[in-house]
Design brief:
433 residues, alpha/beta, UDP-n-acetylglucosamine1-carboxyvinyl-transferase, Chain, 2 domains, four-stranded mixed beta sheet, globular
């Protein structure tokens, strides 16, 4: 059981080597693709948080057999036609990725599925994924004209469409591609900026003829069957970002994070931190189902302020809470712009960052689409609220570890959704267990 609150005693250098839990984004996709594949897939290092567990339960409710073996998960699919109507409502918990990808998957099946989530999911907009799926022929209803959960989906009979997304979103794009794999004709998705490309990479590695045009920021495919596969899920770079920043801002730290996804769309935070003067070495070690994998070696050192904006925002959107902590420890004024999407996450992350960094003595100003963070001021310990958001909680713990004194984080239980062993890893790296 994860505690409702934790206290972090700092400053404690982070030293040693650490292997990340499997990446959440890749774990969701691996489960859905394996469940729709023909044959048995073997998945290792699946993310161990509640979000991904809910995706597993969802696939089981769709008739997919999932078994645990030594060191791996065996997922036995019978192709698209092997999926069946769930006996009850499918509860995806706190997972925005899970509910949107599942919406795309079940939109192609000729049966009824009802998708729900927790109170946070109930507030998050679903119209962006529901509208393109409706355009393909799926019948989707829900609260607020289908913009809010529960989503009631009767799928099947889809037709490929050309979708122009107003906002770059890997979740929406992936939902459309999963539907497109079951649709008649060609499905084409064009984005205003490049979002994460995990789905395209995985499908291409499975032999699906996916056409990606980087210049036009578009992805095109047609209906295709999927084979079973083997996959060792690379470590989660979004989780690695907490340790990388922690090592940079805590004097005396030297840390290697092993086996992390080096997907260019996921390690934008490394570019930002290097721009701030960080000593980060990236060591490639191989690939997994189209995903580059490697190690990150980090040594503590001073940071300088920077500006985060424009096309780089989609690649760092989940890391902005911890990059804001780095900014609070840097010299100068850091600006975050073009990140209005942060207000639609598990909480309003722009407001939460302002409130909670302010509790530690940082000067933070907000606007509709971003933040201004004044660095260079000595921070003080304090009591932080997580706002029910795992990334706010973990960012606060990393900040507290670098500050002299005791920082308490309330609402820690939300960390279970993505990284339930975070406190164990912190204790191991600081030598406090």
């Amino acid at each position: 059981m994860i505690a409702e609150q934790v206290s972090v005693h700092g400053p404690c250098p982070l030293r040693g080597r650490l292997r990340m839990p499997g990446d959440k984004s890749l774990s969701h996709r691996a489960l859905l693709l394996a469940g729709a594949a023909q044959g048995t897939s073997r998945i290792r290092n699946l993310a161990n948080g509640d979000d991904v567990y809910r995706s597993r339960l969802a696939m089981e409710s769709l008739g997919v057999r999932v078994r645990e073996a030594v060191g791996e998960l065996l997922v036995s699919g019978s192709g698209w036609d092997g999926l069946r109507e769930p006996d009850s409502v499918v509860d995806i918990g706190n997972s925005g990725t899970g509910i949107r990808l599942l919406a795309g998957l079940v939109s192609g099946r000729p049966f009824l599925t009802v998708l729900v989530g927790d109170a946070s999911i109930a507030r998050r907009p679903m119209g962006r994924v529901a509208e393109p799926l409706r355009a393909m022929g799926a019948h989707i209803d829900g609260r607020d004209n289908g913009n809010l959960t529960p989503l009631v989906i009767r799928g099947g009979g889809l037709r490929g469409q050309h979708h122009h997304l107003a906002v770059a979103s890997a979740q929406v794009k992936s939902a459309i591609l999963l539907a497109g794999l079951q649709a008649e004709g060609t499905t084409l998705v064009t984005e205003p900026a490049q979002s994460r490309d995990h789905t395209e990479r995985m499908l291409a590695a499975l032999g699906v003829p996916v056409v990606v045009d980087a210049k036009l920021r578009s992805v095109r495919l047609e209906a295709a069957a999927l084979p079973g596969f083997e996959f060792t899920v690379p470590g989660d770079p979004s989780s690695a970002a907490f340790w990388v920043v922690g090592a940079l801002i805590t004097p005396g730290s030297e840390l290697t994070v092993e086996g992390v996804s080096l997907n260019p769309g996921r390690i934008g935070f490394v570019d930002v931190l290097r721009r701030m003067g960080a000593a980060i070495e990236v060591v490639p070690t191989g690939t997994e189902l189209g995903e580059p994998v490697g190690d990150l070696h980090v040594t503590s050192g001073p940071l300088q302020a920077t500006v985060m904006e424009g096309d780089e925002i989609p690649s760092i959107i989940d890391e902005i809470p911890i990059l804001s902590v780095a900014a609070a420890f840097a010299e100068g004024t850091t600006e975050v712009r073009d990140a209005a999407e942060l207000r639609l996450k598990e909480t309003d992350r722009i407001g939460a960052i302002e409130q909670e960094l302010g509790q530690l003595g940082a000067t933070v100003r907000t606007r509709r689409d971003g933040l201004t963070i004044e660095g260079g001021t000595a921070l003080r310990p304090g009591t932080i609220r997580s706002h029910g958001d795992h990334r706010i909680a973990m960012a606060a713990a990393i900040a507290g570890n670098a500050i002299a004194g005791v920082t308490t984080i309330r609402g820690w239980r939300g960390v279970a959704s993505s990284y339930p062993t975070f406190t164990d890893d912190l204790a191991a790296l600081t030598g406090t267990r």
